[in-house]
Amino acid sequence: MTYVFGPVSSKRLGQSLGVDLLPSKSCTWNCIYCQLGRTTAFVTERREFFPKEEILSEILETVASGKPIDWITFVGSGETTLYKGLDWLIAEVKKISKIPVAVITNGSLLSDPEVRRELLEADAVLPSLNAGSPELFERIDRPAPGFTFEKHVEGLRLFRQEYRGKLWVEVMLIRGVNDSEEALKEMAAVLAEIRPDMIHLVMPTRPAPESFVGIPDEELIQRAVFVLSSSAPVLHPAKGEMNLGSVGNLLDTVAGIASRHPVQERELEAALGKLFDGDAAKIRETMGELLASGRFEKVRQGSELYWIVKSA
Ligand code: SF4
Question: Coiled-coil regions in this chain (predicted)?
């Protein structure tokens, strides 16, 4: 197979059949975290890089093989929407299969009405937004000339107005680059304008071309989840489960965690569930006791309830 790979197991898309539409590396950006390495020459003109009939025939063959597939995911060795004719491929796949179709994109071409139109029949589109200011956008995504932050945000905003499928905006969180309170708040404000169905918080877990790129520590990640969830529900696939240790020092343990970052109420419930073998009455009673201690207050952020430590 030349274009199709997998299905690969993906935390966000289950068994995802990848379809690579581009020669490596064809991109409008040169991100500091790109797992494909640096962009040596920008590609900004859309075209049918490979014959679409050949790509379709590989997809059909793999689907017909009966492998379990949850999503057919168009994703390129670069920027997916540089491929001209995505609408034809999506429509043809949908004629022969009920498997939902996702498109992973950096979103840089969404200001082009033709690109937005080609994506309308996808079931989910996952564009990137890694910054809430032009300066940070330039520093992280290092776009080709003319691909400005304003144009990027405008493209995302227009697409949201026209698109009825799932818009899941992907935010790459990079240690010391876009994980400060100020950067997160700026991003949350832009995301609130875009109104995605969900924010997928992802980390640079793969080798990056710039050595300073790294994963923020867990407290900053939790902080990012909290700040960004003011705009839309946040999915953080790499999130570790909360561990409360033993029943003995429960109040201090929860207060210790909540003093460092807000604790999602449903995470706390899940952690207590593990401690009490899913005994719902015991979980309810313990949560009541913790609240009655007077050390916590609950705050709503978007659709989530969080516990924070009351200020003295
Ligand atoms: S948009 Fe994607 S492919 Fe392009 S440079 Fe950034 S990470 Fe790499």
Answer: none
Ligand 1, CB within 6 Å, residue ranges: 27, 29-31, 34, 36, 39, 78-79, 106
Q: What integer is the mean pLDDT of 285-310?
A: 88
Q: How far is the CA of 181 from the centre of ligand 1 (A)?
A: 25
Task: Report how far residue 19's alpha carbon sits from residue 2's, in angstroms, rounded to the nearest whole number.
Answer: 9
Pocket test for ligand 1, best of 20, 21, 24, 29 (most atoms within 8 A of CB): 29
Task: Say how many Å lie between the CA of residue 231 and the centre of ligand 1.
Answer: 24
- Rounded to whole angstroms, how far apart are CA atoms 223 and 28? 31
Nearest CA to ligand 1 atom 7: 34
Work out which ligand 1 atom sits closest to the CA atom of 172: 7
- Kindly give the distance from the C-alpha atom of residue 212 to the centroid of ligand 1, in angstroms, as a whole number: 17
How many other β-carbons are positioned within 10 Å of the β-carbon of residue 265? 15
Neighbours of 37 (CB within 10 A): 12
Domains of the chain, earliest start first: 4-235 (3.20.20.70), 250-309 (1.10.10)
* pLDDT band for position 28 (cuts 50, 70, 90): very high
Residue 41 has pLDDT above 60, yes or no: yes
Give pLDDT, residue 112: 98
Q: What local confidence, expressed as pLDDT, does residue 219 receive?
A: 87
Query: Is residue 14 scored above 90 in pLDDT?
Result: no
Calculate how far, in angstroms, residue 81's C-alpha sits from the geometric centre of ligand 1: 12
Which letter, b or e, does each residue of 153-190 get, where b requires 16 or more Cβ atoms within 10 Å of its Cβ? bebbebbbeebebebbbbbbbbbebbbeeebbebbbeb
Distance, in Å, from the CA atom of 161 to the CA atom of 46, rounded to the nearest integer, reads 23
Which helix (H) or strand (E) segment holds residue 226: the answer is: helix 218-228
Give the C-alpha separation, 266 to 289, whole Å.
Answer: 16
Per the model's pLDDT, the better-predicted residue between 35 and 44 turns out to be: 44
